[in-house]
Amino acid sequence: MYDIGLSILALGAGALAGSFLNVLIHRGPALWGLVDAAEGGNGDFFRPRSYCPECRAPIPYLFLIPVVGYVVLRGRCANCDAKIPIRYPLVEIAAALHTLAALALFGPTPAAVFAAFFGWTLLALAVIDWETGYLPDWLTGTLALIGLAANAFSIFAPPVDAIIGAAAGAVSFWAIGALWRRWRGVEALGLGDAKLLGALGAWMGWEALPIIVLVGSLASLAGVALSSLRGAKISTRDAVPFGPGLALGGYLVFLTIPLAP
Ligand SMILES: [Zn+2]
Predict the structure, then answer these.
(1) Alpha helix stretches (DSSP H) within 107-208
(2) Do 118 and 103 share a domain, yes or no?
């Protein structure tokens, strides 16, 4: 068990990171030209400061405190009473818990810092894909590069395994997607999914790829089953975003790394 102070620090840093992830999730797709600019507004990731998407009133600094702000406001804008999406506190809580998990699994080491970054980026990717159907190149690319940088020092996998993992992950999904498109004429695996699997290979090495794909597929199937239980009609020809399931699969496999002999 680690120092209680260090644990609180990890929770706090994680919640702040989650707060920034919410900005990234809200503004990124428009800034990167994936969705209409009206969705994310003007400016960049730091300006203008956070505002209510309904009435555009700036949010008072006190209410920007992760989770606490949402609870104090009871999930509504102080100015216009518009509902604040539950996604905001959920992302902050998930990022905080993940950061604590990274500290618990890897101890106060550089590996924990890299692991924290890994989970934050996957969280942003999963939510953006869920909301927009896109896995932005900026995020998959950064994820892959930071993974290769960490493994240049063999933190999670040997360097050669990481490089082969990045290439094999991206190429295998790209090839399956291309074959499926010829055979069935539908887009089953997007290029974004291929880049995400490549990034996961860069972090965990090529040997982890089959289990990541298996767990990711099971997670996606569970997601589809849950949505049809809730009444959504999904046919085999519908494009179901694979990114969130793949991100969850990659995350779960990553958590087992410290357990490996
Ligand atoms: Zn408002």
Answers:
(1) 110-132, 137-151, 159-184, 191-204
(2) no
